[in-house]
Amino acid sequence: MPQPISENQWVLTARRQISELSAVEGKKPLLTIAKSVRNKVELSMRPRQPGNRITLPFEWCERQWGDCYVRIRNVYAYAAKGHTLVEAAELAQAKAPSKNRNWGAYAKDFKNWKMTADSGIKLTTWEHDYEPVITMAIGLLTAKKAPITAQALVLACVSEFRTGSRMRKIRVRSLVSFLGYCVDQHHLPDAWAPPKNLRPLIGAEKPSEAVRQKADAFAHDQQIIDLIESLPTEVGPQRDREAAMQWADATRLLAELGLRPIELLHLKVKTEEISGEAYWWCTYEKKGGNGATKARRIYPLPLVGADGEVQQWNLMARWRAGLIKLPPLESGNGAGECWKTYFVRRPAWVSLKELMLSQEDKRLTAYSFRHSYSVRGTRRGIDSGSMATSMGHSIQTHCQHYPWAEKSSTAEAFAKATAQMVAQ
Fold first, then answer.
1. So what's the pLDDT on residue 41?
2. CB-side exposure of 363: number of CA atoms within 13 Å?
3. What total number of domains does the chain contain?
């Protein structure tokens, strides 16, 4: 039966508006409308694929077309960003389409990707850096009122952490990495693409809330020497003496080689093929946001006591002879925590920590031996690049985390320039 002339007129007008709204130069308009079997407005979008056809809650009549067109414009604003019409309609009504996605499967795929490809992180890194924030994100995404943009999701997952803090930075980067993977590999709309500039999400650290770096260097080598000599290697039950000897050698290696605690498990001795010289080699590769550090040669820096005597610990000779046995370092939360668990019961360590904190406002941890190695090398005139190479990080990281290295280089450069000027 022919449609009334009046209906034909508003339909023509409506379709012209839709065409103008979704016009693409040189191509057909992206949107089209039609009357559904229930006399509702049906909206379709090219390309024809699942999710690109919806029925709107408006009658197919001139009286409701004005309100319907406003809804279509709002829906199309989201569809133009990469969403399907189904998703765009939900977003236009402040409903996230996240519940229709299998976020749990995405997370499982992402974990496999991070551990077997990409940067090849370890399980402990996944459990510490990625799993908590991704689990929280999935909980939010599958809730009734889920975030509808990547930025809103990230902010919701880090709000409990202080702006500029290390944990907030880790969470932001981990979640952004996950969202980027989902967009690239699971073809999520661009609305879920994380922002390239993460600084606003991480935020700046407030001076009043700034947290001290985790560890400081010892005041001088004699403190380390005294600490090691305080261990009960010659008194008490045999089991305690053996444990003390193992921890003493582990601490000597940390101090003389500037190791991260975990690197005790990756330490070897190699021999130069031509010269026959033996040298320390560390196979540990630390993975992080700035890439992975490579296996490296380590140059020892022997400690010097208050009397000027160089400590002859003969670590390499004893290592090659099999005389150094390391203590258990793989239980719990890693080698650093194992070291802490043993030394927290040592009176000399406890009193030294309290002394340094009260008199010099410095915090001592297992990493303090590594920091002292850096200070020792700088005091002996070793340039920042060489120190960075032996310690297994970039020169940028070295100057960032060991500011005395940069200050020393700067002071030396100005002193040299002044000396040259005076000599002229």
1. 94
2. 7
3. 3
